[in-house]
Every structure is written in C-alpha cells, then in structure tokens.
Amino acid sequence: MPKTYKIAVIGGDGTGPEVIAEGIKVLKSASQKYGFKLDFTHFDYGGNRYLKTGDILPGNAFDELRKFDAIYLGAVGHPDVKPGILEKGILLRMRFEFDQFINLRPVKLYPGVDCPLKDKTPEDIDFVVVRENTEGLYTGSGGFLKKGTPDEVAIQESINTRKGVERCIRYAFEYAKKRNKKRRLTLCAKTNVLTYASDLWERTFYEVAEEYPDIETDYAHVDATVMWFVKNPERFDVIVTDNLFGDIITDLGAMIQGGLGIAAGGNINPDGVSMFEPMGGSAPKYQGKNLINPLAAICAGGMMLDFLGEKDAAGAIEKSVMEVIRTRIKGLASGKMGYSTTEVGDMVSDMAGR
Ligand code: IPM
Ligand code: MN
After folding, report:
1. Which atom, in ligand 1's list, is nearest to the CA of 243?
2. Going by CATH, does the domain composed of 1-100+271-354 fall within 3.30.450.150?
3. Ligand 1, atom 7: nearest CA belongs to which residue?
4. Is the pLDDT of residue 66 over 90?
5. pTM (2 decimals)?
6. Rounded CA gap, 193 and 301, in Å?
C-alpha cells in the first residue's frame, strides 16, 4: 500500500483557487512518480462563503481540519469584505488554533529570474527567514480608552513569552544546522529600542546558541536588516525574528527573489497540522483571467511535501520550477510570463512527473 497523505485544500478568494489548482496538478504528478498518494479534500472557506452565510468559519472547522496531515491554502481577501475580517478570521485564526508557531519563508533567487538588485546573482540571494507566527504584535492584545474622543488612547501590545521565543529560536538553530549552508543564524530584532521584547529575544538567542557551537551567531537590528537585504544579501543564511518584523522583512525578501509570483511560505507546527501558502494575496483583478503566476503556490506545495517527509518529490518540484523558469518563462509578473496560469502548471507538472 502506498503511503497516503490527507490534504485539506482551502483555495480561498480571488485567484487563490486558480493557483492552488495548478499546485495540485504538480503535486499529483510528483506523487505518481515518487510512489505515494495525496488525498485532497476541498473546503469553501473564504469571502464568498462569509458573504453568503454570515459566518467566517463553521463551528466544526477546526475539528474537521485537525484530521488532515496538512493544509494547502490559496489566499484570503475579498473586495466586498472589510480588510481584516478574513485575514484575522481565517488566516491568523488557523495559525493560532493549530499553534503553527513558525512561519518559514525561503528567499532564493532562481537562475534566470530578474532581480531588482544590481549585480546580485543566485549565489548572493539564498536565505531563509524563520518568523515567529503566534505572538508579538499579532495576538490582538491591547485596547482603546476613550475611543472616538479627543483623549483617545490606543494600545497594541507585543506579547513575547519565554516559551514562544525559545521554541522559535531553537527551531531556527536546528534549521540552520540541517540546511548546512553557511551555518549562520542572524537574530533580527531592535535591542536598541525594544529593551524588553528584544532583550528577551537576545538573551534567549545567546543561551540557546551555546547548544549549537558549530552555528555562527549574528545580530542585526531590523532596520539594518532591510538595508543588508539590498546591499549585501549574501550575508544571510537563516534569520530568526518576531512576528511583525518577519512579516515586514519577508515582503522585501519576496521582491529581491523576483516578486510575490514566486514567494512561498509554510506555517509550521512540527507536531501538528501545518499550512502551506503562496505569500501573495488574492489579486482580485486577475481573477478568472488565467494570467496569475501559479509558481508561488506550486513552491508552497513543494514545501508541504518536504514537511511531510517526501524530500525527493519536493526536490523534483523545485528543480522543475527552476527548469521551467530558466528555459521557458519570460518574467515572473502575472500576465508577463509568456504563458497562461494553466500552461505554467502543465509545464511544471510534466517536468516533475518525468
Ligand atoms: C502574511 C500576510 C498576513 C500577515 C496578513 C494577510 C494578515 O501579510 O502572511 O504575511 O500579516 O501575516
Ligand atoms: Mn505579510
């Protein structure tokens, strides 16, 4: 009996379902070649369901999703739903409920991809951001005082627990060790100003570092980190950082690797249900046009297989993406690829199954 993995698919809003369909095409073809099975179950969570039913997720959503080996997510965000509702009610809720405490975001410039940085090559841009995914400024802690009056006060608190910080830093050290490239871990924080939150991160970082004498430690303030992304991205191997800093720096990371068309990420709970997604949004203006770039979703599918332990199939997907980019694709911007969404999916899928 071939091994079977149960995958929950949430295509979501806008172009989410279109890119996920191409990802599934590629995943199926890789699974056939490498001798395992993928059993996909689709869930209609997203803006349209919310507008129809009035609830963001059904009451049994988490009991249902908990039965799966992983979740494959397209995008959330609907033009008729106020920003924040679906993001908080679906995406962030998943991250919290499943305690997906790592947001893993590789930043890798593939050969043949146009890089906005002058004179930087694939050798210079190859690092991974390990973003804490359940704490910091994302917990929703805080509140208003005297809302709507001239004396209004708004407080938004960054929650950093020793346990949360430590498990993230530990994951990052392990990742740097397993990755085995530059064997360097950079802590990105703001110790010169955030003398409580960044202090906890810094102390924990150097304490855990003692268990990893063969991993070089490095520190950069968050503002300097983004400067280095542009000036000397080759400095980085693995970066560990808090939730909001990680959110911000990985958008710049996506740009230097060629854009949101290629940037993928994993929301990881090493012992639970993890969720994989392209970094880009729902891009409603491209919906239904067969023009959106599906490569980020395909790469997210590859990350999912890697997480499930199907390393060879994951490697084959990455190689196929690289090959299609190198030999066929004109540009990574949606509509400028020289091929349609489905054609790009077909090309990668053919290659990955061969
Ligand atoms: C991301 C997104 C989300 C975040 C939004 C949509 C809530 O920007 O995954 O990076 O801020 O984490
Ligand atoms: Mn973001």
Report:
1. 12
2. no
3. 87
4. yes
5. 0.98
6. 39
87 lines ligand 1 (CB under 6 A): yes
**Ligand 1 proximity of 346 Cβ (cutoff 6 Å):** no
Determine whether the shortest distance from the Cβ of 249 to ligand 1 is under 6 A. no
The string of pLDDT tens digits covering residues 257-311 is: 999 999 999 999 999 999 999 999 999 999 999 999 999 999 999 999 999 999 9
Topology match between the domains 1-100+271-354 and 115-257? yes
Grade residue 1 by pLDDT with cuts at 50, 70 and 90. Answer: confident
Ligand 1 in reach of 135 Cβ (< 6 A): no
DSSP secondary structure letters along 59-85: TTHHHHHTTSSEEEEEE---TTS-TTH
For the chain, give every domain's residue range: 1-100+271-354, 115-257
Q: Does domain 115-257 have CATH number 3.40.718.10?
A: yes
